[in-house]
Specification:
This protein is mainly alpha-helical. It is built from 12 helices and 2 strands, in the order αααααααββααααα. Among the domains are: 41 residues, no CATH class; 137 residues, no CATH class. Strands 1-2 form a two-stranded antiparallel sheet. Strand 1 and strand 2 form a beta hairpin. The longest helix has 33 residues. The protein is globular, with a radius of gyration of 29 Å.
Amino acid sequence: MNITPNPADDTSVAAVCRNCKEALHGPHCHACGQPVKGLMRPLGSVLGDLLDSVFDFDARIVRTLKPLYLRPGFLSLEYFAGRQVRYVTPFRLFFFLAVLAFFVARLTVHVDGAGAGEPPQVFAKATTVAAVEQARDAQLAQMAQAKREMTGTPAAAGIVGIEAGEQRIREAADARIRELQGKPDSAGKAVSKAGKPADTQPGLVINGQVWDADKHPVTISWLPAFGNRWLNDQVKRGSDNVERLKRDPGAFKDAVLSVIPTTLFVLVPVFALMLKGAFLLQRRLYMEHLIVALHSHAFMCLSLLLVLLAAVPAETFAPDGTWLNSVFDWVIALLLLWVPVHLLWMQKRVYAQAWPITVLKFGVLGVLYSVLLAFAVTAAALIGLVEM
């Protein structure tokens, strides 16, 4: 029995493109780009191609991550030289590492919201001033530890939530101490059993007035009515979330970490524009600077991921004060130290300028980008406060 081969699976049979009728010389038409293999074929063949793509991506990830972390500037120079197909593309690499790093950050960075969320009840159980102070110091020590773990990473935006919790702990502890001593609060008002002034009315103060959606809304003259309504809706959400933040700082941390990757995606082309201005005399294309910016940010996300992963065994298997904990502290310190060294070395290799001018430009770019990053993370924190 004769079986007619399927032209979709055999380029030798499909001698011409079925779309534009041009002669075929491979698996894709050189004229219109249509592949010879379409989706109208057995499901097993389609799944096989999908698995090939997945495993090929995995192989390129392995070939890409090692030079990305250990060979500053190597990947960018490879792309400039036209050797690209063996590595993961810069944007895909950055996207993959950014999503992975901040996903791990949400899992590993913890804020002790339980202790900070109900300090009045915790202190209400204390019957002496010494017991209140002991409970206060224990909770503040836990939150200080959380701040130390977040310092120096993009997760540091969540520190504002921890500091809000610390302030509430101090206020609740002071109120309980005054209650035990039978003294009024600083305003001369009676203290309730919950440890707070009975007539305290929380409110958000804007331009010297307590914000109120009806009596004292935020109004910008040049904004249309719907713009001012939207702005006041966001203020209301943020104001409501402040109280939730005091009860659950972890929710704010998760909200901030979820918006930071998007913030970095916005900053990458801006950083490429800064590189373009710093090396204007080299007459490089903007896309070259963009590749450098993508590789730089991918490296920083990979560094953050390694720091987070190194902190997991340090917290799990190495209690504070032990020699093993000191080893992990040194590992994390070396990982953090490698970040500026790598980026400086990368700038030197890619742009090939003398060390003095390289160090000068690196310092200027670092300061400007740090300021820009601080504003961006602050904006992310505000967005996180509204969206939490």
